[in-house]
């Protein structure tokens, strides 16, 4: 395993982290005694495998159902100073409710303290306000930090880049969990801001939200050769020293194996990546046109600026991925979450696009004349059954 300094926390962070959203019994709270033995054994074997390969950062959240309580049955058995434990608790307008949730997390984990607390889901200005206002959630977290129950405080986000940067620039946080990978590099300015503030940078879900790379289409496999798409994406992310760790959302002990193949390649990233990146870029231009790929996102409105709350940038971006790389299943999974993702994945689908006048909101786009038809085409390509967030399943 390789390790990187996790910003101003000074923690020695493994370049991979063991995320706790997929190995638990249920995504809803369940009493400990009702958790089946085979589920608990799978979790314990997954954690044992993680630790055996040097992945000592164990990450979970209050919103991950039984994950915390199941970890609480095993983490106290390990040598505490060899673990980096993170949980996350969502902000709340009522700081007393935030405190109750945070204290429940600590009780579930059965540890005297945790290393990292993430304020979970600073996706909106409202949630940022609930967090940083006087007497808000951050003040509550600081109280427990002063009691020695929390070492460092950060935040996780699925929000737009400008809000992430606003949160970073408060200089109130030690680290950030955010999305950034080959197929979605929008948040790079936020990573640069985190570097300026010497914050740790944790990349969320690079293999799932990065394209469902555990089940890649053949076209993507060929374009990433000689690497698998998963190893390529890991190497792409970790080639940037500003990125400190990638989450592996392991459901079973073997889920680490493919990721570990990147470790001997890290020193050769400058040699290995450029031809693959060039091939991917050319493949997108071949199918969608060079002019489109260079200009498609210019002047696009955000969902809250669009009639019907249609999330035009996300929809067109998913169209690009489906057509350029045959990432149709991934694009469908994301597209059909629109309308049901709340502030974690905001905006609506393009199912009613014929009823909307987009002329004004597309005034700054060089493709204003064709975008309505492309949105309609995308809905026909990707529209399917409604999909819920994993934590709602």
From TrEMBL:
InterPro entries: AKR2_Oxidoreductase (IPR053135), NAD(P)_OxRdtase_dom_sf (IPR036812), NADP_OxRdtase_dom (IPR023210)
Pfam family, one: Aldo_ket_red
Span of domain NADP-dependent oxidoreductase: 39-206
CDD domains: AKR_Fe-S_oxidoreductase
Name recorded for this polypeptide: Aldo/keto reductase
Organism: Desertifilum tharense IPPAS B-1220
